[in-house]
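Example 3.
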Amino acid sequence: MGENTGIVLTEAVYYILLSLTKPLHGYGIMQKIEEMTDGRLIVSAGTLYGAINTLLDRGWIVQHATAEDSRRKEYVITDEGRTVVAKELERLRELVANGEAIL
Amino acid sequence: MGENTGIVLTEAVYYILLSLTKPLHGYGIMQKIEEMTDGRLIVSAGTLYGAINTLLDRGWIVQHATAEDSRRKEYVITDEGRTVVAKELERLRELVANGEAIL
DNA sequence: CGTCGTTATATCGGCTTCCGATACAAAAGT
DNA sequence: ACTTTTGTATCGGAAGCCGATATAACGACG
């Protein structure tokens, strides 16, 4: 009977998905996250490339047609990915609301 | 140079700490969390008792002087625990703000 | 032209955490 | 008497994070 319906995103995955509303390559994602969080979160390479693979497997991001530039591989979020982030945002709002109600 | 200063709480730990602003025993924590989240989060026994032990080790909760009632063991949050939850709430607010800015 | 820092992707191993399953047992309800 | 609820606890598998490590192309500077 353990329901626990929704998916819970980790901080890294959440920010990676947010970064990919515009096409971006791996290294660019790292920089964007650092910028978005004013340097508070620096996603390590191990986390990033591992997460990219699982996100591709789940269809939450896809490889973006890169300008045959070689080295860089660009990715973008999918519609499914957008739905997942939106739901995660809802969950986060609930966490904040519950925290504010008590503290 | 990977800083990543702050502590990140898992959903389970966050809610356990919120539950313990008033003394409560393990089973009561499970029920309170279920109630707080309208049944969306049901913390399993494995998660709960594992988390209680690590929280005790870290000094974020302490065992509360139970009325020698036997079976039940009550716990409460410590000042350190309160500080941790407060910081987590800040982090969650940042996640929400960043999500809202993009979606 | 050589060297150094940055950009860039990728894998591995260790650690922590979550959670379902399982076990045990007292209390309460029917 | 029996069943459900209350209550605590452990185990093992799976997932995720991250530091370390490896590899290599690119640009800048002397």
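The first helix of chain A runs from residue 11 to 19. The radius of gyration of chain A is 15 Å.
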